[in-house]
Give the backbone structure.
Amino acid sequence: MIELNRSDDVFVLTMCAGENRWNTNFVRAFAAKLDEVQGSEGPAALVITSQNEKFFSNGLDLEWRVGNEHGEGGDPSVFAKEFMALMARIITFPMPTICAINGHAFGAGLMLALCADIRFMRADRGFLCANEIQIGFRIPDPELALFRHKMSGSAFFETVQLARRWTGPDAVQAGFVERAEGLDELLPAAMRRAAELAPLGANRELYGESKERIFGEAPSINERNGAAWLLRNYS
């Protein structure tokens, strides 16, 4: 479901569950790999990517969620809180994080991408999209806070209200993706960038504390609470 590999100071977490749709068991498998990364010492950075060349993450496991049965996805009654807590953990992770987005990232997949410090995206294929309004779902306040913090005002509006599908080049131009690359170069480029930033991860306490100040109870998004606080306290 989730693989973790290390190359020098760079950890690579690869999602290997097909379209990588989010359910409770997927959340817990992801969190377990973060435990391994966080248990390391010294310079480090984390790259998150997908094994599937078409999908980075295709959002919520809707069939499992609507069915409201445990099945292979685990207990649906705890999903929302555990998923939001995982996003809060990633947005404040105490080392540099980069998403190498090699395919579509919809809904919860886009949330994951925006929780990373930096995003690299495939240039020739794949969309970023918050498609909740298209499928009749209300976007939760923590998700809105996250998008508002990571995007310009115009990009935020187009994303959450107009359900815009962002290509790699368009997302780079809008400022919330750093680079767009061809598929063959995407992961190597992300790993090189992660290696450059890995020394910042040596002081985990300082790097994590800085993120807490940015994404916790921060006035910078003109809300009472910041993105990390809302994600942690979702109910």
Strands lie at 2-7, 10-15, 45-50, 55-57, 97-101, 104-106, 118-122, 128-129, 179-181. The mean pLDDT is 92. The longest helix spans residues 24-38. The chain has ten helices and nine strands.
